[in-house]
Amino acid sequence: MQLGMIGLGRMGGNIVRRLLKDGHTAVVYDRDPKAVAALVEAGATRADSLEDLVAELAAPRAAWGMLPAGAITEETVAALSGLMQADDTIIDGGNSFYGDDVRRAAELRPKGIHYVDVGTSGGVWGLERGYCMMIGGDTEAVDRLDPIFRTLAPGMGEIPRTPGREGRDPRAELGYIHAGPCGAGHFVKMIHNGIEYGLMQAYAEGFDILRHAGSKDLPEARRYDLNLGDIAEVWRRGSVVSSWLLDLTASALAGDEHLEDYSGFVEDSGEGRWTINAAVEEAVPATVLSSALYRRFRSREHESYADKLLSAMRRGFGGHLEPKQPKM
Ligand SMILES: NC(=O)c1ccc[n+]([C@@H]2O[C@H](COP(=O)([O-])OP(=O)(O)OC[C@H]3O[C@@H](n4cnc5c(N)ncnc54)[C@H](O)[C@@H]3O)[C@@H](O)[C@H]2O)c1
Ligand SMILES: O=C(O)[C@H](O)[C@@H](O)[C@H](O)[C@H](O)COP(=O)(O)O
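Structure tokens for the assembled complex are given below, as produced in the milestone run.
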């Protein structure tokens, strides 16, 4: 099947490569001509503009944006909506806010242009492992794109089948779902990322406690100089907490247990914030996920105003002074 791809970075570039390997064709555009050239070398057709890309695609067209969420995606969808025709499909595979999908789909509907949102997971490993996809949109458009999704998805692989799923939608076992109407795909991906924050935070805190088990503040008989790399490795094998995030943790620790390459400034793309907003709207307690999000904010402050205020109050009520040389 033919697909237009806009945005050929870490995700879009590899998505195109995986499609080409499976016999699909692609017309590619990126504002960076070097990114376009690399994909043309791999077998894709070049486009020098969005107009060019739309002109190269055969009707009914399918154009997938794999762009930074927010203004760039917004402008691209708006430009495509002026270029595409009834029965064409615009796909947003980036990490967009699901409310934006609902609005865009409604704006495109009078023109007869379909809009499909694809929450795409798998990161830079997707070329090899495949992408887990959470899809929102009308059934006609989603079903038409099925050959694309089937190629991009990981497939059954070696994961054992879940007993009791016989007769259910087989797409979930292959690594993609049609979650519901427009926005549902990104909604599910948003919660996936909220969970990702919580899981990551749990591993990070657990390993931090293990790392401090040798602290001089502990009774000598209960101090342990633990090998974190070995612990991560052994937990990968048969333990209850094994996971891909733990695999990545084990790799990082095998490279450098002291993590000297990192400052610990942890960014967030917005997905965690939207997850908490959704929890508030639904009045669902999301204690772990919100605490993981706030921990990311704290990671960016060297000296926190809130912590200073704590010290000021302690000094006020009890005359407690901060240590001259704080232990960190
Ligand atoms: N990296 C990941 O692990 C990952 C995983 C899942 C989803 N996502 C999401 O996928 C989207 C893309 O992520 P990425 O990691 O590939 O980003 P990236 O920064 O690696 O690539 C973005 C590409 O878009 C191009 N671009 C920017 N503005 C453009 C414009 N106006 N017109 C055409 N091209 C333009 C850039 O030149 C770049 O090649 C984001 O929404 C991201 O949140 C990323
Ligand atoms: O499922 C995935 O492949 C990841 O979740 C992916 O979407 C990406 O790495 C996020 O963009 C990082 O999100 P934060 O910047 O919010 O940590």
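The longest strand covers residues 114-121. The mean pLDDT is 97. Further analysis is deferred to the final report.
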